[in-house]
Amino acid sequence: HGGETRVQARAVEGARRVGALGSTAARAREYEQTNRVREARREYEAAVAGTLSGRSLLYMGIGRLAQVEGDFAGAIEAFTRAVQLNPNDVNMHRELAFAYAGQGAVDDAFNELVAALLLNPRDAQAFADIGRLLLDAGRAADALPPLYRALTLAPDRFEARYAIATGLTRLGRNDDAARE
Known about the structure:
By secondary structure, the chain is mainly α. It contains ten helices and no strands.
């Protein structure tokens, strides 16, 4: 009977911790909805320390909140952990790419967007993101092929069309830009 009591006590403690984590995550979401970014981030960080399941999503939340605070290094750390925990999620690679871009780490951002394309080669958004990243880095000629690919995959993407026109204008191809 003594062993049974220890098992029951551990089960009760486990259930209590799950409940506490649930309330921590709920509090974090509540803070986030009321724009209490610092408090929300602190609650997500507390929740991630005590759970194994869903950690990548908690890190995503931490990363996004870090970006809102202008803490790109913190965002990169959180998104890197999210990618490590869930490497087959295109959106996690995209979020990490945006954090790298915010730090001016164009090559690292590019690598994460390529990882997203390896996971989904028909991801028009990833192609468009690569094009915009290269365009923002002053590499208009390099930006055009991925932007055209994005447009081929999703012809209704006005953002890609606008980015193509911008790239063409920067290359002095004003007539081509006007057609876009």
